[in-house]
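hey so u asked for the seq, here:
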Amino acid sequence: MKTQPAFDCDPDFRRNPKKSFFCWRCQKDLKPEQSVRWIHLINGGTDILHPESESEYVPDNGDMAMFPVGMDCAKKIGLEWTSEHPELIPPVAS
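ran it, structure tokens below
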């Protein structure tokens, strides 16, 4: 199973998001129509699970689920460590 230490991705938690949909890595607000990638945080949020390892991963108490990242941050993490999940994008308010 391939994992990557999440904190090697250099998250910056100093910013306070204004909305409930924001990038995990930089805390910038994300718009629902914006291109977004997702990371699966495991081991209490300390590691990112590689998308190819999803099938062999057995969820446990340390599973933090999927978190959105903006495209700039996804590229910094490595696009191969992120995945697309359009069904997780919040609906646009009318």
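Strands lie at 3-5, 36-42, 47-49, 65-70. The helical segments are 71-77.
lmk if thats what u needed
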